[in-house]
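Appendix B, Record 12. Input sequence as logged:
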Amino acid sequence: MEMETSRETSPILSPSNASLNGTGPHSLSLNHTEPAKNGDEKYEELDEPNDSQSGNGLNVWQAVLFITGLLVDYSLLAVEALVVNTGWIGLFLATVLCSVIVFTAILIGRCWNIVRGRWQNERHPYGAIGYEAFGSWARTAINVIVDICCFAVTTGVLMVTAENLFVLGGQALHGKYCLLPVVIAVVACPFMWLGTPRDLWQLGVWGALTGTLVYLLLFIGAIVDDEDTEADTDYSNVTNVTVGTPSNVGHVRGTLLHSTVLVHLAEICGIVQVALGIHYIAPGLQRDMKRPEKFTKTVCVSFAYTFALAIPVLVVTYVFQRDRLAYVTADTTVLAVLTPGPLSVVAAALFLLRSVMVLVSSNNPLFQSLEERLDIPSEFTWKRVVLRTVVFVMQLLVGETIPHFGVIFTLLGGICFPILVLMAPAMCYLRLRNIHTPEKYKESKAIWILETVVCWLIIVITPIMAVIILYVMGAGIFQGKTVLTVPCFINATLAHE
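Logged structural output:
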């Protein structure tokens, strides 16, 4: 089989060290000779993982902090606002989705543990997983989708950061929203020139720390902020739709009363996947760990910590701020509905400071992919600076075209993320498990069957959910039930009203 350049240079690709005795977690079953019926490639045995390759990598707690720094995000506050608005049905939907996302994150980690013996030095580990499961077409498809997701997510995060700054500035920034992404891009661009997660884990510590402080402040703020919501709420800050002055609150209410619960449920589905879907980054992070076999523990601790912060804020928001969330859009967050004061200002400022970490982390797989294709060395050079700056400017232009993170995230959650976050992990895990660890069936038959049933449910339901999200959001956009209006370069004031 013709090998890729990245595989030829790896010191652990020789099949001479492969386990052929049919035992061990990464052994080869000689009854399976091809990864898939792709017609042009033969399956080759996997080498045993050589963990000494990652001796200088991240430990479990560094990886936990890195993932937590990504998860404790501003967009998660938008999910909480939508859940409060939709009630029990929204809570049920969000709970199921969160559970499935954690499960598939564990699956993608198991997949990498199966294939990493051959691909430890691969710059696109998610694509390598697809290759071992289904062949070269799957690798190409996954790598392309990962690149699209990285580009779109970073664009959305840029607009999230601008939204956060808009909330922080209040009425002083009214009509000036479209300038904010430009300012943020200028500040964040130099950080884009940094390396891989192995070089960036300190930013993860910063993201986890600031995120924790923000959620603690919001927990307190939602309780103590007990002003009269009907008399004093500034709906321009809550809704960010069509009109943005308190004098037009009646029009805002009339518009939003025609928004169906179905639109908000679609927004929950889309935004939850983007907010918690670390899967496109996870294999690269796991590759850089000293003990990649500990990734399941890393995922469980990271998500448990995130939910331990988010759930109390959701509860107190429902109890104390429910009336203020009666009229929401996908851009509405728990932070935005609080009365401006020291707590909300400090929380917004901390989120603003942590945004650089998220911007850099979400773009990293895309940068590595483009640099490999353009033969740009992994060392710091002027070529890296030029490429990453150009990509970031393109993301800024897209953001100025769709200046609402809720719309970007919801549509992304109906197009690309269902594949990377839900379908691909389930499909690849079933395939790799059957090829490389068939002996596990005899050892734990009940668990094997349960995993199979859950994976197939995910595979079947995911495309149905994606179609519903796109249909509902498309109808909502055309009927004016979302915040999408015009691009910034057509009307900078109306674009974010």
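The chain has one domain: 60-496.
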